[in-house]
Amino acid sequence: MRLTIVGCSGSYPGPESPASCYLLEADDGARTWRVLVDFGNGSLGALHQHVDPLSIDAVLVSHLHADHCLDLCGYYVLRKYHPTGAQPRIPVWGPPGTAERMARAYDLPLDPGMTAEFDFREWAGPVQIGPFTVTPVPVAHPVPAFGLRVSAGGLTVGYTGDTGPCAAVDEVARDVDLFLAEASFVTTVDNPPDLHLTGVDVGAAATRAGARRVVLTHVPPWHDPEVSLAEARTAYDGPLSLARAGATYDL
Ligand SMILES: [Zn+2]
Ligand SMILES: [Zn+2]
């Protein structure tokens, strides 16, 4: 399984990265399957640097905040109006209301919205996409939000999406080969609850859960990511790095 960081800027696109978008690729022996985990603003353009954007098999949306889903708008145009013809419908997994949310985002009539281009499905339990098994884990955020465990070929990536500290973070991180974890907050006395993690939160969860590698992501442009990295290091001894747009991890 290969992970490419298409975008990792927290909350909005930053000077060096689009918002959240991660490409996972795995072979099933016949071909390479590709899924996008989140599709935040600015990421569709960057995706072109890595793969043919028409080669995506499914999109997995953690939650419906703008920085995690809005580039489905451009992707709808690309698939609908591509000069080679309208592209096959692909599944888009997300929280309840994803189809309506995306129709409103593009200012489309709710019916049909984007349903001719995307087969919208709501997270309810594990799903299979080619060689990938994806398990959604509800997390703590102001809107319905899911961490995702994505497995293929005996390897697992755990992605927090956006979440405050909660037991589900440990569940997402349990024994994973790579823990892709948001670190939006730095440690202060007044971080609001049920919103985001600090580097310390991530490191502590990774240690408790036995994550074999940690990549910090979703650091907003107003924070120094090195601070988040240093915070995580105080609570986690294993391989630890900051997500950077364009980086790839071969698991
Ligand atoms: Zn976010
Ligand atoms: Zn969010």
Tags for this entry?
alpha/beta, Metallo-beta-lactamase, Chain A, binds zinc ion, single chain
Please describe what this structure looks like:
- With 251 residues, the chain is an alpha/beta fold.
- The protein has one domain: Ribonuclease Z/Hydroxyacylglutathione hydrolase-like (Metallo-beta-lactamase, Chain A).
- Helix content is 22%, strand content 27%.
- α1 links the parallel β3 and β4.
- α5 packs across α6 and α6 runs parallel beside α7.
- The chain is globular and about 50 Å long.
- The termini are close together.
- The structure holds zinc ion (ZN) (2 copies).
- The site of one zinc ion (ZN) has 7 residues, from α2.
Q: Major beta sheet, specifics?
A: 7 strands, mixed
- CATH fold field value: Metallo-beta-lactamase, Chain A
The bound ligands are: zinc ion
CATH superfamily: Ribonuclease Z/Hydroxyacylglutathione hydrolase-like
Beta content: 25-35%
Low-confidence stretches: none
Count of separate structural domains = 1
Query: Would you count the extended β strands for me?
Result: 14
Structural class: alpha/beta
Q: In whole angstroms, how far apart are the ends?
A: 5 Å
Helix content: 10-25%
The Cα radius of gyration reads 17 Å
CATH class: Alpha Beta
Question: Layout of SSEs?
Answer:
Elements: E1 2-7, E2 21-27, E3 32-37, H1 43-47, E4 58-60, H2 66-69, H3 72-81, E5 90-94, H4 98-106, E6 118-122, E7 127-129, E8 132-138, E9 146-152, E10 155-159, H5 167-173, E11 178-182, H6 199-209, E12 214-217, H7 225-233, E13 240-242, E14 248-250
Parallel strand pairs: 3-4, 4-5, 5-6, 10-11, 11-12, 12-13
Antiparallel strand pairs: 1-2, 1-14, 2-3, 7-8, 8-9, 9-10
